[in-house]
Write a structure and sequence with these properties.
Blueprint: H1 10-30, H2 37-44, H3 48-64, H4 66-76, H5 78-95, H6 103-113, H7 120-130, H8 133-144, H9 149-161, H10 167-186, H11 200-208, H12 211-241, H13 246-271, H14 276-295, H15 300-329, H16 335-364, H17 368-387, H18 402-408
Helix pairs in contact: 1-5, 1-7, 1-8, 1-9, 1-10, 2-3, 3-6, 3-12, 3-16, 4-5, 4-7, 4-16, 5-6, 5-10, 7-8, 7-16, 8-13, 8-15, 9-13, 12-13, 12-15, 12-16, 12-17, 13-14, 13-15, 14-15, 14-17
C-alpha cells in the first residue's frame, strides 16, 4: 500500500482485526492473576502488599519485555512475532494450574506470564505501517481496544473459576492456541515496510537517544500506566475500602476497564482532527480533577462510581492520543523500537502504583494519598503536553514559526 494513500486496503483492515483480537487474548492472559488476587490472598494468607506484588509482577515483566519485542518486530515483522508470543504465553497460563498453593512459585509464573503483555509493541508498528497518516489515530485507537482483555479477565475469570478453579486457565490456553494458528495464516506484514539492518542494540540505542521517545514515555506512563494500575488493583481497592465481594468488585473493575477501552479509539479519532498533544492535555487535566474528588473517599454510589468511570474515560482518551502522537513524530523505520520503549514505560507506570497503594493502605489505612499523587502526575502531564508537545514535527523537533524566522533575518 502507498503510505500516502487516503483509503486503507482490505488487507489493512484484516490485519487490524486479527491484531486486535490477539492483543485482547494475550492481555486477558496477562491479567489472569489480578481478578483472583483476593482468592489467592485468602488461600495463602497474604498481606495487602503481598497481593499487590503478586498482581504487579506480570505487569513489570510485560512492560520491560515490550522493548525487545518492539525491536524484534521491526526486524522480523508481526507475522512471525504475534503467533510466536501467543503460543509461548500458553506455557505460564497452564502452569498457574499447578502452583496455586505456593506464593513463591506464583511469583515465578507471574514473571513468565508477563510475556503476554508484550504484544502491544508488536501490533502498533503493524497497524501503523498499514494505515495512512490521516487514518492512523483511529486505527491505533481501535487496536488499543485490545486492552479490553483486562476487562474480559476482570468479568469472566472469577465467574469461570466458580465452575472450577483451573477452568479459566484452560479456557484461555485453548483460545491462545487457536489464535496462534489462525494468526500464522491471516497476518501479513506490509510488503514495502522498511526492514532495519542494524543490530538490536544499535536500533534501541538510536531510539533511546531521541528526546521525544522519553517525552512520549512519560505521558504514556501516566495515561496507560493509570489504566494498568487500576486494572490490576481496582478489585482489591473496591474489596478493601468499600467492602464489596470479589465477584462484585471484579465486575465493577471490568466496567472501569471497558470505559477505557471505549475511549481509547475516541482519543485516536480526536487526534485525527486536532493535535494529539492537545487531546492528551485536556484528558489528563480531567483526570487530575477527578482524582482529587476520589481522594476525599466519596460514597461509591453515586459519586465514587462517577469519578472512577470519568477517570477511566480520561485515561483511555489520553492513551489513545499519545500513540497518535507517536505515529506523528516518529520515523516509520523506528516505530517498533520507539513503541517498545514507550509501551514499556507505560506498563512500568502501572507497576508502581499498586505497590504504592498497598504500602500506603498498610501504613495509613487510607488510599487518599495515592489518589492525590495520581492527581499531581496527571496535572504535570497536562501542562507538559500543552506547553511542549503540541509544537513537534516528525523526529521530535519543534516546528519553527516561519514568521519569526523571517523577522529574525538581517
Amino acid at each position: 500500500m502507498n503510505s500516502d494513500a487516503q483509503t486503507p486496503t482490505t488487507a489493512a483492515y484484516r490485519n487490524l482485526a486479527v491484531a486486535t483480537v490477539g492483543f485482547t487474548l494475550t492481555f486477558w492472559a496477562w491479567d489472569l492473576v489480578a481478578p483472583l488476587a483476593g482468592w489467592y490472598g485468602d488461600r495463602l494468607g497474604l498481606s495487602s502488599f503481598q497481593q499487590s506484588l503478586l498482581v504487579a509482577v506480570p505487569v513489570l515483566v510485560g512492560s520491560v519485555g515490550r522493548i525487545p519485542a518492539g525491536a524484534l518486530t521491526d526486524r522480523y515483522g508481526a507475522r512471525v512475532m504475534f503467533p510466536l508470543v501467543a503460543a509461548l504465553t500458553i506455557v505460564p497460563v497452564l502452569l498457574l494450574t499447578v502452583v496455586k498453593d505456593s506464593y513463591g512459585l506464583l511469583l515465578v509464573v507471574g514473571f513468565l506470564l508477563g510475556l503476554g503483555g508484550t504484544t502491544f509493541a508488536i501490533g502498533i508498528p503493524l497497524v501503523n505501517s498499514w494505515f495512512p497518516p490521516a487514518k492512523r489515530g483511529l486505527a491505533l485507537g481501535v487496536f488499543g481496544m485490545g486492552m479490553g482483555g483486562v476487562a474480559l479477565s476482570g468479568y469472566f475469570t472469577p465467574r469461570i473459576a466458580a465452575h472450577g478453579e483451573n477452568l479459566p486457565f484452560f479456557v484461555v490456553a485453548v483460545a491462545l492456541a487457536v489464535y496462534a494458528v489462525l494468526a500464522a495464516f491471516l497476518l501479513t506484514d506490509r510488503p514495502d515496510r522498511p526492514v532495519p539492518t542494524a543490530s538490536l542494540a544499535t536500533r534501541l540505542g538510536t531510539a533511546g537517544r531521541l528526546r521525544v521517545t522519553w517525552e512520549l514515555s512519560a505521558l504514556y506512563a501516566i495515561g496507560f500506566g493509570g489504566i494498568v494500575a487500576f486494572g490490576v488493583y481496582l478489585p482489591t481497592y473496591l474489596k478493601t475500602w468499600y467492602g464489596l465481594d470479589p465477584t462484585d468488585a471484579g465486575t465493577k473493575a471490568a466496567g472501569f476497564a471497558l470505559v477505557t477501552v471505549v475511549f481509547r479509539p475516541v482519543g485516536g479519532w480526536l487526534s485525527d482532527r486536532a493535535h494529539p498533544a492537545l487531546v492528551t492535555a485536556y484528558a489528563l487535566g480531567a483526570v487530575a480533577l477527578l482524582a482529587i474528588v476520589q481522594a476525599f473517599d466519596p460514597r461509591l454510589d453515586p459519586v465514587g462510581t462517577i469519578a472512577l468511570l470519568c477517570m477511566a474515560a480520561g485515561l483511555g482518551t489520553a492513551s489513545g492520543s499519545v500513540f497518535a502522537l507517536v505515529a506523528q513524530v516518529t520515523p516509520q523505520a523506528q516505530v517498533g523500537s520507539v513503541t517498545g520503549i514507550v509501551g514499556a514505560t507505560g506498563g512500568l507506570g502501572g507497576f508502581l502504583p499498586p505497590l504504592v497503594m498497598g504500602a500506603i493502605y498498610s501504613s495509613k489505612d487510607s488510599y487518599s494519598i495515592g489518589f492525590m499523587l495520581l492527581s499531581d502526575l496527571a496535572l504535570a502531564g497536562c501542562v507538559y503536553a500543552y506547553g511542549r508537545m503540541r509544537g513537534l514535527r516528525q523526529g521530535g523537533e519543534p516546528v519553527r514559526d516561519p514568521a519569526r524566522t523571517t523577522a529574525a533575518r538581517p
